[in-house]
Amino acid sequence: MSELFPPVDHQSVKSGHRFKRLRAVPFRVVLPNLVTLLSLCAGLTAVRMGLEGRWEWAVGAVALAAILDGIDGRVARWLKGTSKFGAELDSLADFVNFGVAPVLMLYLWMLQLHPSFGWLAVLAFSMAMALRLARFNVMSEKPLLNWQKDYFTGMPAPAAALNALLPLYINTVIEIPHTGAVALIIAAYVVFIAFMMVSTIPTYSGKTIGARIPRERVIPMSVGFVLIVAALISYPMQILALVSIAYLAYIPFGWHRYNQLARLSTPTVEQESDADMETESEA
After folding, report:
1. Fold topology of 26-265
2. Which residues have CB under 8 Å from 115's CB, separation 6+?
3. Residue partners of 57: CB distance under 8 A and separation at least 6
4. In the predicted model, what is the mean pLDDT of the chain?
5. What is the dihedral of CA 100, 35, 134, 210, to 10 degrees?
6. The whole model's pTM is what?
7. Which of 25, 56, 69, 254 is within CB 3.0–4.6 Å of 204 for a Cys-Cys bond?
8. Residue 27's CB: how many other CB atoms inside 10 A?
9. Half-sphere exposure (Cβ direction) of 142: Cα atoms closer than 13 Å
10. How far apart are CA 57 and CA 40, in angstroms?
11. 192-211, pLDDT tens digit by residue?
12. Residues 103-157 pLDDT 10s
């Protein structure tokens, strides 16, 4: 017990070896972390709504978590409040919000009708999400070309979570029969989304959309944005289903465009030999 509560060394205190006072943290650094914690609360609330069978509320909570996840990073950059702690907290919150909550919802809704393969799909999705987030953290330190910043390697975490819930969206439009065969098909779809997360297939990020808006397009884009938000509020499941299908359908076109840009940015053998000859002549 004496090792747990060692006596105070008064000599070290008198000689000036005191505890250093903790420095105050600026609020601009704390604010993005608060947004991240709000997104974590939304993800956990989605699990509760799923346990209660309130599927529209559960989907809304996951969508809210995705919106807050997109906000916290931008807020940190705007306020110049980025920190290593915030990055780690964001990854942990993303794993719960997008790697655990959506597949638990699907398991409670349908996958439990085929418990063996259904639970394997849940595990595969969660493990893929953990690997995806770990790879993203490592690759975020790698310098990229300007055009590469418009693409993710694999499907990003929020998109994977929202696309995994596509069967739940469709169920509100066309009632899906609750059978073991259907559960097996949905489990295979979840495994496909898990594969997309850990794959190296490039997916368009859309980060640069809206960075610069021409003056003549400000009003039309504002009206279109308001209409989209109104449609999302009035028909949330239908709009999410359409967006998810459009996102999945665009992946091959984005992949093709990425390969085109990669070929254009990679110098050919002739260009490299010409460059070597120029450097030799200059020498």
Report:
1. Four Helix Bundle (Hemerythrin (Met), subunit A) (1.20.120)
2. none
3. 49
4. 84
5. 110
6. 0.82
7. 254
8. 10
9. 11
10. 15
11. 999 999 999 999 887 666 55
12. 999 999 999 999 889 999 999 999 999 999 998 888 776 777 777 778 888 999 9
> What is the number of H-type helices and E-type strands within the chain?
12, 2
Angle between helices 101-109 and 55-78 (to 10 degrees): 170
Query: At a CB cut-off of 8 Å and minimum separation 6, what does 101 contact?
Result: 43, 44, 46, 47, 50, 61, 62, 65, 161
**DSSP assignments along 84-151, one per residue:** HHHHHHHHHHHIIIIIIHHHHHHHHHTGGGSHHHHHHHHHHHHHHHHHHHHHHHHHTTS---TGGGGE
Calpha distance 77→90 (Å, rounded): 14
User: Residue 105 is encoded by which pair of tokens?
Assistant: 């919802």
Among 101, 100, 109, which residue's Cα sits nearest to residue 167?
109
Strand partners, 117: none
